[in-house]
Amino acid sequence: MTGGMSIYRVEKATDTHLVALMKENRGAYSESTLDLASINPPVIAGMLGHPIPPPEGSGTPSVNDDQLAERVQEHVAATNGPDAFSGAVLIAHNGKIVLDQAWGMADETNHIRNTVDTQFYVGSMNKMFTAVAILQLVGQRKLALDKPLATYWPDYPNRDLASRVTIRELLNHTNACRLRQAFWKPARRL
Q1: CB under 8 Å to 12, separation ≥6 — which residues?
Q2: How far is CA 183 from CA 59, 102, 140, 158, 167, in A?
Q3: Do 106 and 112 touch, CB atoms closer than 8 A?
Q4: How far apart are CA 51 and CA 167, in angstroms?
Q5: What separation in angstroms does the CA of 117 have from each of 41, 75, 113?
Q6: For residues 89 and 104, what is the distance between their CA atoms, to the nearest angstrom?
Q7: pLDDT, tens digit, 9 for 90 and up, residues 37-74
Q8: Residue 190 — very low, low, confident or very high, per pLDDT cuts 50/70/90?
Q9: What is the mean pLDDT of the chain?
Q10: Half-sphere exposure of residue 59, counting CA atoms within 13 Å on the CB side?
Q11: Average of pLDDT values for 86-91?
């Protein structure tokens, strides 16, 4: 999907933690984080990547709303075969709809095309929407990624856990053992 990527700049680097800004061959930027549980042998504790705006001084020209809509339409039109996009895209900026368009089939058997009103089963994609909403709150300084859950949910039933698990860990799905203890209750033996 990215067309490949290369390291644009390393932001943080220790023996067990790396944060790098990546430039994708298609021109977009992303931030990649890699955490190791151990270094000998190297065992990955967590990986995370998410898109970011072009960094200052990257030389990437900004586009206006119409150019963005045109680029998205061109990209979708260029996909075909098994990689063809089938779905709907809504882009809004400053309260104005920039692009609202659907492509592909909702039901191939009955030859029903997707529309902007087609309902899609998104399943685990809800995690992505939740992450975007949380990161928007971080951008508005209403949340901090490295504060514990208890900061924002003081009456969470497992107060000990809520005082130790951060918002970042919830988003990264790290500290799986602690999180599993918080959300999963084993079946009782009869």
Answers
A1: 18, 19
A2: 45, 37, 28, 9, 15
A3: yes
A4: 18
A5: 51, 22, 11
A6: 12
A7: 888 888 888 888 888 888 887 765 667 889 889 989 99
A8: very low
A9: 84
A10: 2
A11: 92
The residues near 120 (Cβ < 8 Å, ≥ 6 apart) are 87, 88
Amino acid making up residue 171: L
Q: How far is CA 98 from CA 25, 28, 119, 120, 180, in A?
A: 25, 19, 20, 21, 41
Which element (helix H / strand E) includes 72? helix 65-78
* DSSP element (H, E) containing 24: strand 17-24
Three-state SS for 133-190 is HHHHHHHCCCCCCCCEHHHCCCCCCCHHHHHHCEHHHHHHCCCHHHHHHHHCCCCCCC
User: What pLDDT, on the 0 to 100 scale, is given for residue 123?
Assistant: 81
Distance CA 70, CA 62 (A): 14
With cut-offs at 50, 70 and 90, classify the pLDDT of residue 151.
very high
DSSP state of 73: H
| CA distance between the termini of the chain | 50
Residue 155 has pLDDT above 90, yes or no: yes
Based on C-alpha coordinates, what's the Rg of the chain? Answer: 21
92's tokens = 């809004």
